[in-house]
Write a structure and sequence with these properties.
Blueprint lengths: L4 H5 L4 E5 L5 H10 L4 E6 L3 H6 L2 H8 L2 E4 L11 E4 L8 H8 L3 E3 L1 H8 L3 E6 L4 H19 L4 E5 L17 E5 L2 H4 L10 E4 L13 H9 L10 E5 L3 H8 L5 E4 L21 E6 L2 E8 L2 E9 L8 H13 L6 H10 L8 E6 L6 E5 L6 H18 L5 E4 L9 H10 L2 E4 L4 H10 L10 E3 L3 H10 L6 E4 L12 H13 L2
Parallel strand pairs: 1-2, 1-4, 2-3, 4-5, 6-8, 6-9, 7-8, 9-10, 10-11, 11-12, 16-20, 17-18, 17-20, 18-19
Antiparallel strand pairs: 12-13, 13-14, 15-16
Helix pairs in contact: 7-11, 7-12, 13-14, 14-15, 16-17
Length: 499
Amino acid sequence: MKQHGFLKIIKERDCAVLGYGVSNRPLVEWLIAHGAKSVTVRDQRSPEDMEKSGDAPRLQALGAHLVCGEGYLKDLTEGIIFRSPGIRPHLPEIQAAVAAGAVLSSEMELFLALTEAKVIAISGSDGKTTTTTVTSLILEEACKRRGTGKVYRGGNIGTPLLPFAEDMTPEDFAVVELSSFQLMTMGEGAGVTRGALTNITPNHLNWHTDMAEYITAKTHLLGGEIPPEAAVLNARDENTRRIGETLTTPVTWFTGARDLPRGYLPDTVNPARGDTAVYEREGSIMIAVPTENGVTETPVLDVSRIRVPGRHNVENFMTAIALTRGYAEPADVGAVADSFLGVPHRLELVREIPRAGGAIRFYNSSIDSSPTRTLAALSAMTEMNSREGRRAPTVICGGQDKHVPFDPLAEGLCRHASRVIITGEARDQILTALGDCPDFDPAKLPVTVIPDYREAMRTACETARDGDTVLLSPACTSFDAFKNFAERGEVFRATVNAL
């Protein structure tokens, strides 16, 4: 493990941990085990809730102090502050502490400062989890083939990685998904070996002050005084294109357009910088390298081998291929494509019920917490159903609003759905967007509004006819009715399996 300055200053300064959630639980234990001068956990839950959950007794046994309730940030005088990703760094109490000389950090920033593993980081508005998973699986195949190295997966998904930092070696890989919340306070460059931005579309605008702040947070993954050795960016996304123009790091540009011509290079490619491209030609994913004599193309994977549906998943594989270039071989990529069936709650086929007039299928895509995610799911569903001659799906959408426009969602529903059931807090906004859509025809697209989420699920499932497809793709967050998207997806699964 790197002998970083953090190991020295935690012994000299009092530490505050803001929020006692998933990532900060091992952080508290790590700080105490490594001789922190003192550790105070500050959590906005009430003393009663902290006691009832068992967190207060646990912290007491560890030797940590606890400040909780409405005034949990009062007298924030500790010298190092570790922020939970969900807590905005611009809260007045935090800003006052930083102005007085406090160091603002997080569990992930501490991990990145300490690990000796090669860090492969993925961020973006859509596709982060699938890309992170596929990337880690490809690297696992490569490590297994070589007989050396270990792969750790975490960050915004999975297990917090800080407890494993001391076990990691330069032969290992840490594949991390990073959210804009985590990237907010990271220095530019973030300390990663390679980084990818899948795309940047309006998202989390109920948390970020505006789109500019959201984009700025994403840019922290790349660039800076110590930039990554390589970046992977979406050539068709306006925001990632602009970011790519500012980088000194070589960029691999991917594009999901089909059947591009031989020797194709996006206009974003800068050969002098060492840029390359990943795209599809004649059914194969290719890596293209500019040379003095033109372009050298290398086939990596036949698209037909990718078992997870949707064009967006082809792009996810392209991103993973670019991130693992030089570390893995085409055979490693192929082994993952042949076996990977997707991540739960992402276009997950829950059940197929045989019927004389055609099977009824139920898909759980609860992770679709923004309109762009739902549009990708609808596109994939349309592609699957058209191949098999099936009707367009019944779509369950709605939830808590992220303050992002629903106009694109309305257009997508009019093109790709046969019926819509709207539910949750944002139901009126979605209904208004549908009514304002020039393509909306209530005779062709029946719309039902059911405020209660569970009742909406039951209605969609129980009224499905032979040959129907029922798709849960909310386009909103889950927090109006569930603790997270996973619980929403599990409730849908239970509803389907109870039929």
